[in-house]
């Protein structure tokens, strides 16, 4: 088997890889397509839920979601029957797929990559798979902001550490995620860098048209054409702290600057109420994937002010950087350590004065802002599906 994998890495043969993940995700599906077409791997993806390919209610967006880009093209896949009465990724029993092990065995896969573990299907699979000789890998993006104290965090750490012991290798998406794995006992030799990435080509190739479209969209929204635009895009939920950005904008009194919120969610009503009487605050509804290049093109700077450990990465920053946009993120955003250098600013999460300083620096120097946008495009080239795949192949070689 080692000889076969060495031949794979040299491009002379290929092996099978089963990928187990919760549901089709707009960021992962293009990577699966890339893997199938460019890596030499013959892959098959095992989905535990069909969210995203059929219109279903997203509780955080408060809207019916069905992505408008191909999520199932270019690779082999199967939807493993989910018997959960209330399918969701928000609770342990939301993904319950008793046939998962037999489905993977029937594929004849020589290696398995799991993208989630905190569901009953995943735990069942780990228990049932322990007798197999097939290498088992895990790729995750969790991070830890500070070491928690007390018996409950101690027991949780022991449990998660036991879970990670079941894997032959773990793929980490960035430095914060690497520290999380090490905190839970994964040794350095079992860790391989497989960065979070989006479909860079889709954004960069549409940039010219997107900027043309954004000028018309700016007019439709009523934003003055000469205004710089601060953009927040995503779910309007507590962890992303859009209310912090609104509060800073309200008291900073920027000249010739507009604030645009793109998205929906539980905080939308609150934000609209607070925005009454504040000049140049605009709202746009949820934008599907095909509209996202235009969404970023309208921005002068993209801001992600999230607070807490739930913002494990922030792939909206990858997308913004593909469009050549400078970024401002809080230090609780998982990608801050990897993606934000001379292309933007990092501020202390929850500290509105710190966020205000960053915005002032950005908006007071348009030439600096433009240079930072150029740096964004250069930096994001290293966070591509090619690099993500390179880490996966290194991990497979190590396991075999």
TrEMBL record:
Annotated ranges, domain Glycosyl transferase family: 216-367
Keywords, comma-separated and alphabetical: Transferase
Superkingdom: Bacteria
The name this protein goes by in its record: Glycosyltransferase
Signal peptide region: none
A single GO molecular function term of this UniProt record: glycosyltransferase activity
Transmembrane region(s): none
PANTHER family, per the entry: SULFOQUINOVOSYL TRANSFERASE SQD2 (PTHR45947:SF3)
Pfam families with a match to the protein in the record: Glycos_transf_1
């Amino acid at each position: 088997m080692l000889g076969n994998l060495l031949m794979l890495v040299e491009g002379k043969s290929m092996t099978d890889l089963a990928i187990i993940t919760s549901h089709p995700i707009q960021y992962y599906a293009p990577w699966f397509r890339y893997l199938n077409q460019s890596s030499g791997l013959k892959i098959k993806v095992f989905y535990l839920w069909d969210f995203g390919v059929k219109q279903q209610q997203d509780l955080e967006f408060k809207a019916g979601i069905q992505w408008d880009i191909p999520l199932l093209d270019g690779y082999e896949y199967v939807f493993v029957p989910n018997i959960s009465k209330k399918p969701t990724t928000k609770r342990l029993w939301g993904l319950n797929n008793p046939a998962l092990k037999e489905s993977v065995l029937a594929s004849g896969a020589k290696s398995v990559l799991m993208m989630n573990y905190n569901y009953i299907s995943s735990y069942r699979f780990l228990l049932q798979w322990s007798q197999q000789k097939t290498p088992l890998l895990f790729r995750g993006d969790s991070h830890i902001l500070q070491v928690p104290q007390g018996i409950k965090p101690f027991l949780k750490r022991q449990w998660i550490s036991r879970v990670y012991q079941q894997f032959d290798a773990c793929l980490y998406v960035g430095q914060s995620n690497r520290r999380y794995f090490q905190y839970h006992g994964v040794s350095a030799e079992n860790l391989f860098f497989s960065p979070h990435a989006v479909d860079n080509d889709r954004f960069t190739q549409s940039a010219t048209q997107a900027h043309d479209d954004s000028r018309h969209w700016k007019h439709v929204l009523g934003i003055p054409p000469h205004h710089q635009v601060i953009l927040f895009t995503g779910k309007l939920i507590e962890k992303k702290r859009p209310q912090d950005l609104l509060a800073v904008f309200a008291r900073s009194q920027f000249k010739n600057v507009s604030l645009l919120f793109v998205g929906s969610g539980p905080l939308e009503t609150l934000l609209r109420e607070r925005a009454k009487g504040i000049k140049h605050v605009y709202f746009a509804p949820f934008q599907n994937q095909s509209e996202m290049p235009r969404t970023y093109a309208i921005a002068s700077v993209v801001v992600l002010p999230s607070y807490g450990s739930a913002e494990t990465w922030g792939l909206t920053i990858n997308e913004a950087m593909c469009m050549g946009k400078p970024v401002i993120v809080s230090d609780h955003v998982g990608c801050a350590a990897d993606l934000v250098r001379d292309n933007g600013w990092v501020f202390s999460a929850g500290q509105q004065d710190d966020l205000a300083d960053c915005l002032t620096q950005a908006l007071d120097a348009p030439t600096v802002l433009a240079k930072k946008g150029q740096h964004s495009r250069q930096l994001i080239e290293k966070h591509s599906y090619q690099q993500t795949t390179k880490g996966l192949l290194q991990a497979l070689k190590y396991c075999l």
